[in-house]
Design goal:
Shape: globular
Number of helices: 10
Radius of gyration: 20 Å
Protein name: HTH araC/xylS-type domain-containing protein
CATH architecture of the largest domain: Sandwich
Number of domains: 2
Keywords: DNA-binding, Transcription, Transcription regulation
Pfam family, one: HTH_18
CATH superfamily of the largest domain: Regulatory protein AraC
Order of helices and strands: EEEEEEEEEHHEEHHHHHHHH
Largest sheet: 11 strands, mixed
CATH class of the largest domain: Mainly Beta
CATH topology of the largest domain: Jelly Rolls
InterPro entries: Homeodomain-like_sf, HTH_AraC, PchR_regulatory_protein, Tscrpt_reg_AraC-type_HTH
Organism: Croceivirga radicis
């Protein structure tokens, strides 16, 4: 493929630790001649950036990083190569790493028919809050941040596993809005960070072939939307297949390829997301919420919620 001329963009910096309001915006990437979109969510102590585009040819950008920044890069598809002075850091499809972006001008080269990634920019204070008892981790992060060169936390990029894929899928499929969406994304961000620094060697998470969603798979997105609008009732696989106009086997196979999980697990995820938002709103009882998300028995809902989030619905505040 040919190469585009470099275009200049400002790098993201992490916000103050506590924000007064939730900031969210989406930008079409047509202004750089590409078919795609950028979504940016400013949370407490971090910024979550989702990028998806289909370059006509290899894309070269000039990134102006006004302040040094710590960025987790999760490369869903395609690859990204960052260059500062003579140092190059590459993150390939299906891998992630924590990168120190030094202040200055960085070159970014993106390659692939489809480029999709999540970039999480964090503050050290945010990490210190999450891992206050892990002095070894915080010391290594501080040492990393002191570097004035483009460098990474892990010497080798780390591959996605099932748990990480699930969180990335959750970023992509969240149906909440406004402050409820902020609370949910903040929770999932914390979950993701804890997964990355999981230290229990006896329970190493297996590396699997499940991939994050192909974000522009229109048919499966419609199926997912159909699930989201029918959380209050039982939805069958044959019903979904009829809605999608394909057979049940293809439906189940394609859905898992796109969302990295079965239809049943995705339905549970959507139900728990909606329940979490309704609990935060504090307008309905747990029994009423359980009905709205498809559980006739509130006790069954409570068991499912605790299994999903690790705490009871009554503990949400």
């Amino acid at each position: 493929m040919g190469k585009k001329e470099k275009m200049q963009f400002k790098g993201t910096n992490a916000p103050q630790f506590l924000l007064k309001k939730f900031e969210e915006n989406g930008t079409q990437l047509a202004f750089i001649g590409e078919n795609g979109i950028q979504k940016r969510y400013q949370l407490n102590g971090c910024v979550l950036l989702g990028l998806y585009y289909q370059p006509k040819e290899q894309l070269r950008l000039q990134l102006v990083q006004e302040q040094k920044a710590l960025k987790f890069v999760f490369q869903v598809s395609g690859s990204n190569h960052l260059k500062f002075n003579k140092k190059v850091v590459a993150v390939e499809e299906g891998f992630y790493n924590l990168i120190v972006n030094p202040a200055g001008n960085l070159s970014v080269n993106a390659a692939g028919k489809t480029i999709a990634c999540y970039i999480l920019t964090i503050q050290l204070a945010f990490m210190a809050h999450l891992f206050e008892d892990d002095n070894e981790l915080l010391s290594s992060l501080n040492k990393l941040y002191m570097s004035n060169e483009l460098t990474t936390y892990w010497k080798e990029n780390k591959p996605f596993d099932a748990a990480i894929c699930n969180v990335l899928n959750d970023f992509d499929t969240v149906t909440l809005e406004g402050d409820l969406k902020k609370a949910y994304l903040q929770t999932k961000t914390v979950e993701l960070l804890r997964l990355l620094f999981h230290k229990n060697e006896k329970k190493q998470r297996p590396i699997i072939t499940a991939r994050p969603p192909k974000q522009l798979d229109t048919l499966m997105a419609k199926v997912n939307a159909y699930l989201a609008y029918n959380l209050h009732r039982s939805v069958t696989i044959p019903e979904l297949a009829q809605f999608a106009g394909i057979n049940t086997t293809k439906l189940k196979t394609d859905f898992k390829k796109v969302y990295g999980k079965t239809i049943f697990k995705q339905l549970t995820t959507l139900r728990m997301q909606k329940a979490y938002g309704l609990l935060l709103a504090k307008e309905l009882s747990i029994a009423q919420i359980s009905q709205q998300v498809g559980y006739k028995n509130p006790q069954h809902f409570t068991v499912a919620f605790k299994k999903f989030y690790g705490h009871l619905p009554s503990e949400i505040s």
